[in-house]
Amino acid sequence: MRTAGVTALVLCLAVAVCSSDPVYYREANGSWAKMEAAVRDGRLEIKIAPQAAPNGEAILVINKPEWMVLDDSAAPTLSGIKVNGTSRPSSTSELNLGCLADASAEVVIGIKDDKNPIAADAVFRLNDAPEVSVEIDRSSFGPAKSSARMVVKISGLAVGKYEGTLSLADMAPLSNRASWPVSFTVMGVSVSEDKQTVSLANATAGFRLQPDISKQLLLPNGAWSKLTTHIGAFLYPREFTDVQITKDTEAEKTVLVTAICQDLDGKPNDGNIKLEYEVTVRQDTPALLVTTRSINISDKELGISPNWGWLACPYYFTAEGKQEWGSGKDKERYHNIGTPGWVWLAPAKVGETGLLWVSADPFGEFMGGSLLLYGPRGKRQSGEFSEMKLAFAAAETPAEAEEIYNDLVEKGLVTPPEKGG
To answer: In the chain, N or C: fewer CB atoms in 10 Å?
Structure first.
């Protein structure tokens, strides 16, 4: 059997070197050593012996700068982050830049390395945001400083959640690199030009509202929820006819959306019911606050029964603990849960986000796999309506969900169900 290896190799390089400059090489154990190399006719002759080429590969440093530290296997770290002058945590594996109030931001990132300077190829990139401009100032990078200040100017931001990557490397011979996921939101309400899409975002998540039979409200876990109004037939929003931002402060943004209806077959139904969606995001809660009204616009009495749903999950929690599906997929179509005040929907896959669903109205199961919320039902005269109040928030665990719910109650943003209800 023939064994691959290096016995001896003479390498000639035409480089600007002094005869006294040593050449450094990396040994198999990761340490660095040096050798003398002869210079003949402007060429550097390097004899590579087996110890300089473990596994048949040689890593050489020629003309080593004085500032370069060869023995360095650690990537750069962050020494501080400021967003629009406000400090943010920098000692985490994920960089959450918080909630922005404007369409532009300045992010100042302090970087340090124990041994080598920071490489100038530092990257700050946002995913799926071609309309956003990102300008990076790296003027403080380079030899022979082992710290730097990266200034990122972001403009053209719209309301919503953004994700991206920060990637840094040092100027060690093997260029140690580190990356951090970056996320932030731009709080507020944004309305599309045709007024058929309303985007909202708070400090933790983005949401989207649109008229559709199935896909009405996009939630942080990627699921769509919907309002259904029954008046003998099932009605859904067909078109937004009016969109008004009714509150626009730094602490709170509220939009009121009016919609005309369609039936389950997609046919217009404009003369019986109109829908109102009053939706709020706030700085002091991760929850989206929703109030909907199914309004009788006919000239006769109507029996109105609204509900929200259908949200699937493998299992769910209430304040009483984990709840197994009571109906079973092949048994009852509907199963009453009652009025727990809040429900946490477990994610379908590991790594996905759980969802908090809040309301004083009664919850129920459908076909042992998805949840419904039932609104007040009964006869309504012309101009009267059936109203539902609910809230949604991303929550990693049932404990976090309950904490968010209790905070909403304490702030008076949601009303808990009546005792014994």
So the answer is: N
